[in-house]
Amino acid sequence: MSSSTDPQAPSSAGMPPLAAKGPPADRKFPCKKCGARLDFDPASRALHCPYCGFLERIEPSSREVQATNWDEYWENHAGQETTIAGRSSQVTCAACGAVVLLEDRVAADRCPYCVAFLENKPEEAQALIPPAGLLPFAIPERQARDAFNDWIARRWFAPNGLYQFANLGQLSGVYVPFWTYDSMTYTHYTGERGDDYTDTETYTETDANGQQVTKTRQVTKTRWTPVSGEVQHFFENVLVYASRSMPEYYVYKLEPWELPRVEEFRPEFLSGFQTERYTVGLRDGFGKAREMMDVQIRRLCEQDIGGNHQRLSAVHTQHVGVTFKHVLLPLWLAAYRYGDQTYRILVNGRTGKVVGSRPYSWIKITLFVLAILAIILAAILVFSQLARSGRAQRSAYPADREAERRAQACALASPWPPGPNNPPASMVP
Fold it and tell me: Phi first, then psi: what are they for 67, rounded to 5°?
């Protein structure tokens, strides 16, 4: 039995010849065994082939993620933005405004944030400040789905349709854009310090006889003193959500993020996941960061003032040595429409923490209220029945007490002491 190693040789079964063919030159991360596209697998922290199971390990980087100096960027690098390798096109959701960077040769049909249909008209990706680092997905889809389903199962008043949706496990893995800012701050403040002291106060009141009576009491008063001073504080990794596609309070509820573990950006981690482009620019992001810093700076000023109360009239802060990073954080997202509204459930792709919104079933709430009212009514009926029974028993007590009183009176009036041979009290003349 002979065999041919020539790929053009016809097979004995009459099948067409097999052509030796490698993956297309423009395909990102092809499988070395079968040529299919490799996707990043959070469970194994490797690129995984969904067809032949081949794994290509991604070794941790030894290089630290570098922040960019704010002043240097605006002086030397502004306008030198670029695109992310393998994400040369983008599509904008007309419903929520999310800008999704598409993998080359991959189309997206729905927006991961609002499930609206995306127009099949991708455009060339706009240049951006490239990500300096990211947190790779650590929670695989199955684990995220379990957390997602458990969260929905504990929503007692959710409509039944929501549980059916949970069983579908419709989750999208998305890398969400953030800015982080570091800044050394120097703050000068003016204000007032309030110190409490006790004073004796005289007052009058009317007593029970209608007379005016003078009394004294101890009252707490505050003495205010003008103050001024300076505080300084270093802020590190102030995190700012760099998109407008979702309400910020949902995103920030997913904290804490493992920011000290941010790795150097590598496009391999994006393979198989959607990536959103930032829509909050660098300057606007720093404006949000300053607002966050100002809240803590005011607290530091109040601590520096001391006393029982503090008033701040002016706070002037100077930011020195500002640096920034564009980072991508992993998020499992389920967006669904119920009625006329869109609801979202978010799963932290590193910790599995779940937050989200959901509709309420007024039928279930009404039935619950009716059940509570039924329990209360049943309790009232039981207590009423016990009260009537108690009154019936107490109505018989007077006759019994009177008979007992007469028997005791007769026993005391008898000349015979009580004993087994003496006549009963009822026979005493």
Answer: -85, 160
* 8 Å CB contact between 273 and 40: yes
Q: What is the pTM (predicted TM-score) of this model?
A: 0.73
The dihedral through the CA atoms of 30, 36, 41, 44 has a sign that is negative
CA distance 50 to 423: 107
Distance, in Å, from the CA atom of 95 to the CA atom of 341, rounded to the nearest integer, reads: 12
Query: What are the CB-based long-range contacts (under 8 Å, 24+) for 216-220?
Result: 220/196
Domain ranges of the chain: 26-59, 66-182+231-358, 365-389
The per-residue pLDDT for range 289-306, each reduced to its tens digit, is 999 999 999 999 999 999
351-378 exposure pattern, b = at least 16 Cβ within 10 A, e = fewer: ebbbbbebbebeeeeeeeeeeeeeeeee
pLDDT tens-digit map of 176-225: 999 999 999 999 999 999 999 999 989 888 888 888 888 899 999 999 99
pLDDT over 80 at 159, yes or no: no
